[in-house]
Amino acid sequence: PPISPIHTLFPSHLDGDGAAALMETGPHPGPSPCFPPSHPPMVEDDFQFVLCEGCRQESPNLKLLTCLHTLCLDCLSENKPIGQCPVCRMAIPQASGIPDMDNLLFTNLQARLKVYKMIGDSGGPSCSRCHGDKAAVWCSECEEFLCTKCFEDHQWFFKKRSHEARRVEELRAESAHRFLEDTRKSCNLFCSNPGHANQGHISSIYCTKCEKALCCSCALLDSQHAPFCDIRSETQRRQEELATINQDLKQKRSGFEATYTTLQDEAARLEQAQREMRELIRQRVEQLVQLIRREEEELLGLVETRQEQGRRELARELQRVEGVLRRMEAGERLVEKMSLYATEQEVMDMQPFIKGSLEELQRLEPVVAGDRTQPRDFGECRARLQEL
Fold first, then answer.
1. What is the pLDDT of residues 76-112, one digit of tens each?
2. Taken in order 166, 169, 172, 175, is the CA torsion positive or negative?
3. Which residues form the RING-type domain (predicted)?
4. What CA–CA distance (Å, rounded) separates 116 from 343?
5. Which CATH architecture has domain 45-102?
6. Per-domain boundaries in the chain
C-alpha cells in the first residue's frame, strides 16, 4: 500500500469542527475496507542478519568489527583472551578487544522489527500514552502508538508540524521489508556543535572541510566552515561511494571465489591422495604380513627339520657310546670272573678270544667335542631372519 500522509487520513488543523471531523474520519478499531488485516509473514528468517553473529541473539549493544562482522558485547568479552573475530579470525586492533564502532543500523532495525511484531500480534498494540485503549495509529516521528483520543491531542499539539501517521490496519497488511523502508527517517542528524546538539538543533548542512554536520546558525556565523553542501547530498554521495566500492569488491570477489574453489579442490585432492595412500599402506603391510607369515612357517619347518636331524644323530652317537660302555663293563666283569673262577683249561681256550676283544676296545677313543661331527645348527635360520 502507498504511504498515506497524515493530511489524507485526518484533518491537519482541528479548529472549529475539526474534532467532529476527526471522530468521523479518524481510525476505528475495526478493519478498514481498503486495507483488510492480514497475518504478517514470518520475519525471523529474512532478518537473521540483525542478530549477533556469535550467539545469534538480539542485543542492544552490537559492535561492528573492522572485518565488518557484528558481535555483541557478551561475545566480545568471551573472546577477549583470543583477540580475534570468531567468524573470520581477523585480529581485533583494539587492545581491549572491544571495537569502538556501534552497529547502529542493526540496533535500530531490531527496534523497528519489534514495533512491526507488535503490530502483527493478534491483540494488537495498546496506546503508548493512555495505555488503555487499543492503538489505531502509528506516528513514525514520535514512534508511538496512539488511540483515537490521544491522536486527536497529538494532532492539536503538532498542528504546525507534518508528522507522518498511518493506520495500524494498513501497517499490519504490509510486509516487514516495506515497514522498515517506510519508517526510515530521511534526516535526523543533529548539529555537531556540542552546545547545539544538546539543544536539538537539526542539521541540514554538511561542511566538507571539517567533515561535520552543521545547523544553519553555525554555517552562517562561523567563517571557518566552508565549503558547504546539503546533508542529503552528502549522504547520497556516501551511499554512492559505498556502492562503488562494493561493486569493485564484487569484481574482486570472483577472483577470491576462484581461489577458494581451487583451494577446496586442492584440499579434496589432498584428502583423496591421503585416503589412497592409507589404503596402499594397508595393502602393502598386509602383503608384508602374509610374506612374513610364510617365512615364519618355512623357518619353523626348517628349525623342526634341523632339530629332528640333530636328535637322530645324537641318538645314534649315544647308542654307539652306550654300546662301548656296556662292552667295557662286560669285559671288566669277564676278566674279573676269569681271575677268580677260571681253570687253566678255560683260560687257555678263552683267553685269545677275550684278549682280541679287549684289544679292540683299547683301540677305541672317545670322540672329543671339537672332533665329533656336530649336528647342523640354526645358522641358516638366523641369516634369513637377519635378511627379513
1. 888 776 778 888 888 888 877 888 888 888 888 888 8
2. negative
3. 52-89
4. 147
5. 2-Layer Sandwich (3.30)
6. 45-102, 249-364
